[in-house]
Amino acid sequence: MIRTLDTLSADLRATSHRSVAEHWLDLYRRHDDIPPLSALDPLHFPRALVDAWIVDAEDDGRFRIHLAGETLVRWYGRNPKGLHFEDIFSPAMLPVVIRQSRQVVQTPCILYHQMQTTIPDWSVPAAFDRVAFPLRDAVGHIRHILGATVFANDPSLGRGGESTRIGVEYQYEIPAALQAAS
Predict the structure, then answer these.
(1) Is the pLDDT of residue 181 over 50?
(2) pLDDT tens per residue, range 102-136
(3) Closest among 114, 103, 99 to 151, alpha carbons compared
(4) What is the pLDDT at residue 119?
(5) How far apart are CA 104 and CA 111, in angstroms?
């Protein structure tokens, strides 16, 4: 569902998501456009650092984990920093996360998801919310994604999902990006 940027903060359920969103929105207003990665100041969302992550879009079309907070380290049972999506996601999940990541950098837009993923040997799916924001590189291209993932369950019990069901998917339009695309 496409939503306007002014509804973003009200839609976010997790404190981590709201603090990252507030920082990104503040940078967006200051730059009057999608902010660069270099403008991020983690001191503006210190409690969300555990849930935060950054992904880089590489020239060959692949995505690589630039930074992963403790939540994802516990989820994967290792630090995924430096790994490409195909190194950490199951074959069933890979097309989903690639599509979502391309949507953030190519549209560009902000994505918010409420999801459930099945885990081998679990009787109940792991539920989580995720938000993702586009960021520019040093020369102005949208090549990075800042995000935060918050699990309803203890993430240390998982080791990545096998398949995921998206319950809610909101795409937030970014006015400056829409003007640049016209």
Answers:
(1) no
(2) 999 999 999 999 987 776 665 667 788 999 999 99
(3) 114
(4) 66
(5) 7
Q: How far apart are CA 51 and CA 130, in angstroms?
A: 9
Which residue's structure tokens are 């950098």?
105
In whole angstroms, what is the distance from residue 94 CA to residue 178 CA? 28
What is the spatial distance between Cα 6 and Cα 174, in angstroms, rounded to a whole number?
10
What span, in angstroms and rounded, lies between the C-alpha atoms of 155 and 136?
Answer: 30
For residues 123 and 41, is the Cβ–Cβ distance under 8 A?
no
Identity at 23, one-letter amino acid code: H
Q: What is the pLDDT of residues 71-92, one digit of tens each?
A: 999 888 889 999 999 999 888 8
Tokens of 176: 């400056």
Give the Cα separation of 122 and 146 in Å (integer).
Answer: 29
pLDDT at 148 over 90: yes
Residues near 177 by beta carbon (within 8 Å), at least 6 away in sequence: 33, 34, 107, 108, 109, 134
